[in-house]
């Protein structure tokens, strides 16, 4: 984790009400909280208890909690974001140490998440994402949706519960919340309908291909969307795995079947069926990049390459940007066709790479692929030592996936 900077955050000398002269927040990496707000004497600090962490103030306690997640970047970034937002709000806006927050304070904070005000102080201009060291950085990009508010409180509840368990806090101010009683609807809503997915594929296939760069970009987009949909890969898995993880294995009936071994979330491995369609798309993409049609064992070529001669893997942010640009352009093409397409265009603009993973699962289920096979394809269960002996089950999974889960490029 980043060391604490010597730069202290300027704090408004104000009451608990919103102050329009509030100084802009800064990331907790560079935050130094004044002694009267650092939580050393917080009202909710545990007393007469042997603490299990060495933290003396709220900022160090948060860092101790976050240190548990440093090996999982996505989780760490999400957890830091929510802890950072609450600490900055507590100190800057409420003028209270985080370890003095009450249940009522957290109810006020939830309303703040729905509309962070003053906007100029809390939200990045135009919703743009600036680097954490940039003075234009802000903890928000605008109001949070109801789902994002709920997720923020879930994460903070985990943090508070851990700080209580660690002997730093006396109680969890969120434990009285009725949040746990709210159950998500038992269905996935963030996915592309077949009609909307067809619009995306149609737009991709119509991408310009007049120059070498345009052809290379088109080939990359088509291959990336193939991986995300046919493979059901997470975007982080696309960036962190290589083409050398493709391998071929002959089944009991003598058919050669290709697989992609994916190192995924939580360093868990799974085998993804590399269907005939996927292998054809892989070969086309590799030929476009001047590579042999099939990868060599242990080849370190990234699954998706930058434009040009570089062989460095694309970052998660770069891959995410490509996907969002495609969805945004396809949405604009829909909107240009008339007002009756506006609602579908709005939905498409909300889509992200993870929607393709959900779409893959939905399509496999709709095509009546055994749900246990869908689970294994998407990595909802880790590989076990005995999986290498279950080739018959793997072969059935490959066969059903190949027959029933297709992307259908024209």
Structural account:
The structure is a single chain. The chain is mainly alpha-helical. It folds into two domains: 28-181, no CATH class; 194-404, Intergrase catalytic core (hpI Integrase, Chain A, Orthogonal Bundle). The chain has 14 helices and three strands. The protein has helices at residues 58-66, 73-94, 103-114, 119-122, 146-165, 194-205, 212-230, 235-240, 276-288, 316-335, 342-350, 353-366, 371-378, 391-404, and strands spanning 246-250, 256-263, 269-274. A hairpin with a 5-residue loop joins strand 1 (246-250) and strand 2 (256-263). The radius of gyration is 25 Å and the shape is globular. The two termini are 48 Å apart.
Features:
single chain, 3 strands, disordered N terminus, 3-stranded antiparallel β-sheet, 410 residues, globular, 14 helices, 2 domains, mainly alpha, hpI Integrase, Chain A
